[in-house]
Amino acid sequence: RVLSCGLKDFCAHGGDAAGTAAGDKRVPKIASVVGILGHLASRHAGSIKQELLRMFHESLGSSREHHKATVPFLLQLALMSPTLLATVSPELVDSLKPPVLNQLHQHFSAMPRDELDGVVGVVVHLLCHTSAGALRTLRFLLATAAP
What we know:
The protein is mainly alpha-helical. The protein is about 80% helix and about 0% strand. The chain is built from nine helices and no strands. It has helices at about 1-10, 15-20, 30-60, 65-70, 70-80, 80-95, 100-110, 115-130, 135-145. α3 packs across α5 (about 70-80), α3 (about 30-60) packs parallel to α6 (about 80-95) and α5 (about 70-80) crosses α6. Residues about 15-25 have low confidence and may be disordered.
């Protein structure tokens, strides 16, 4: 429920990839969402990880407006919470198989260039600050870039 409310608020306040990349402060509840999830992570890390991954995968196959904002919302959560990033990053890398990568490509192909550049910048920043599963992530990037 916390993630769902956070996503709705993110969408209501114009949360998009460009806002995420710029660290937009217009989304007032996201700090509360991060705080609540951080508190819950000590006892419910598995459930939180499962829900974050479910939201990610569900959003890729949908053209509904709030699903378009899900990936930028999740990126913003990861930027604000190293704990959430560390919780989900190893499993996320494992789930990035060719069909999912194709869905990501389709999901972002209609995005304006400046917003797409912002998303790429956020992803690169997160990759540089991820210690959990860093070797696995590097191997994935090398294998994907040069199969």
